[in-house]
Specification:
Elements lengths: L15 H9 L1 H9 L1 H25 L4 H20 L1 H12 L5 H29 L2 H22 L8 H7 L1
Helix pairs in contact: 1-2, 2-3, 3-4, 3-5, 3-7, 6-7
């Protein structure tokens, strides 16, 4: 991976661990090349499409060994999709839209809400899976990913953020 992007100063700079991690993976390089909002939006679209394809496959393909193996492959692809953009950009994005005095607080709140959502999702999706099946669970996840895309597009304004000068220099 090319080290063409230098360390970006976001209200005092990124710490060395984040800098090294973000330049060792392709997702990290895309965060700096695409800007965090674009990466997060692309990741939500990718997740919505993968959830939809997985749901359609689970619904229309008859049961069997091949179906289980292909669904396992789809689950691996879904794991990549969830880790690709949203897993990385949520931390970079939050540091670019909040002032430095409250960044850690909002990062903690965001992490807590993610864990709460995971806890609720485990119990809710288990009930949906038992009553309706895997395809309906995947459709629900696709809708939630599309909602994430819409919320990011409407409410995240990186251009008016606390680090817009840093992003402009990185381009």
């Amino acid at each position: 991976i090319s080290m063409k992007y230098k360390m970006i100063s976001i209200e005092g700079g990124l710490d060395k661990a984040t800098y090294v991690a973000s330049h060792r993976s392709s997702a990290g390089s895309s965060v700096h090349a695409w800007r965090p909002k674009r990466v997060q939006m692309f990741s939500f679209v990718l997740m919505a499409v993968m959830f939809l394809v997985t749901g359609l496959f689970a619904h229309f393909v008859p049961k069997g060994v091949v179906k289980r193996r292909v669904l396992f492959g789809f689950c691996c692809a879904l794991y990549f999709c969830t880790s690709f953009g949203c897993g990385m950009s949520q931390y970079v994005l939050s540091s670019s839209v909040r002032p430095s005095s409250i960044r850690a607080t909002f990062a903690g709140i965001a992490a807590a809400m993610g864990k709460l959502g995971a806890l609720i999702g485990v119990f809710m999706f288990e009930a949906v899976y038992i009553s309706r099946g895997m395809d309906v669970v995947m459709y629900c996840c696709a809708v939630l990913a599309a909602l994430g895309f819409a919320l990011t597009a409407v409410f995240v304004d990186v251009e008016q953020s606390y680090s817009s000068k840093s992003w402009a220099r990185a381009r």
